[in-house]
Amino acid sequence: xxxxxxxEIVSPEHLVxxxxxxxxxxxxxxxxxxxxxxxxxxxxxxxxxxVSVEDEKETTSFYxxxxxxxxxxxxxxxxxxxAKSASDFDxxxxxxxxxxxxxxxxxxxxxEAKNSAQALLDGWKNLALEAxx
Amino acid sequence: xxxxxxxxxxxxxxxxxxxxxxAMQMVASAKLRKxxxxxxxxxxxxxxxRHVLKSLAQSYAGRDDAPVLLGGNGKDKVHLLVxxxxxxxxxxxxxxxxxxxxxxxxNKLLASGKTVKIITIGRKGNDILRRLFKENIVEAIxxxxxxxxxxxxxxxxxxxxxxxxxxEEFDVATLFYSKFKSIIAQIPTAHQLIPAxxxxxxxxxxxxxxxxxxxxNEEDILKEFLPRNINxxxxxxLLENGAGEMGAKMSAMDNASRNAGDMIDRLTLSFNRxxxxxxxxxxxxxxxxxxxxx
Lengths: 133, 294
Description:
The structure holds two protein chains of two kinds.
Chain A: E1 5-10, E2 15-21, E3 23-28, E4 31-35, E5 42-46, E6 49-54, E7 59-64, E8 67-72, E9 75-80, E10 83-85, H1 91-107, H2 111-132
Chain B: H1 4-41, H2 43-60, H3 68-71, E1 78-84, H4 94-111, E2 115-121, H5 123-132, E3 137-141, H6 151-166, E4 172-180, E5 186-194, E6 213-215, H7 218-293
Parallel strand pairs in B: 1-2, 1-4, 2-3
Antiparallel strand pairs in B: 4-5
Helix pairs in contact in B: 1-7, 2-7, 4-5, 6-7
């Protein structure tokens, strides 16, 4: 087992999440990446997508509307313009977003666009599952 | 000498004024707590942002190819002053101290032959500055309708500033607001937005420069980061202002209530004196009347 990593998700309005976890996956502009303990320092732009934080028991997802990830010795800091956990959403909002993502997926032409649309759709579906629990 | 009736009327009117100022003080203190909480919860983000900016700026130190938002566009001719004040009055010297601070700054710039443009946020600042710099005010933003300041409001203002910068309407932008130190102390502060100001804290000196990997690359990150930094600066200024306004209002209203109390005491004293004088006078009249009949 690798070392725990400290994760902070902050939006301009408040601290959304803070804690030590096993791993965190982040929607970088060049694709999702996962950070575990003792990662090399990295700074990345984020695209709208989902941050999933995984600890021993469960995985929690947060929707982020773009921002930055700052990975350093002291942990991962995610600076998001907008960051929301599943409980911050209305079920109807999630449903709407799933529908939109499905449409996007159907309309996507290039493989890259398809890929990112699929990732977005999966993220929303995950969120819907978490919201139910 | 005012009559008893006049004094009575004045006492009633001061009493009702005191009631109003007391109520306003209580409302302000409730709002202050909320505003303070908000300002505090926005701090981690701003702090992190500053941290990232610093490490990015360090890697650009001494280089000529820094982005214009960081290094400036090389000119120093037209200054934009963004003055953030409250939308409501009755908060002591809060608004006027920010406005005075901005005014002094503007006068200094004008005296050295620079062009000054002003954007005001909040109605009160606009009222004060309009008298002196009518031609210089390019825009007046009012957040009067806004009950809860949200990040999007700040982003809107930030985008406006950026759009102006891109169309080369100014070279240097400075933000004026009031830093919330405590309920009784709000410090008017100037913060340079463009080119970005990197504060060197004493505490960070021994911090090591971390060699980051950048994804996709440094330039793109800075390009994304700097505009956001401006929005965040505006946002935290607005929140600090919100807390400061409430704090100032609270202490102003507290003062007003206390003054009203003093005034009531004084008026009551002279009311009683006069009442007693009247009683004495009536007694004298009765006694001297009885004496005369003897």
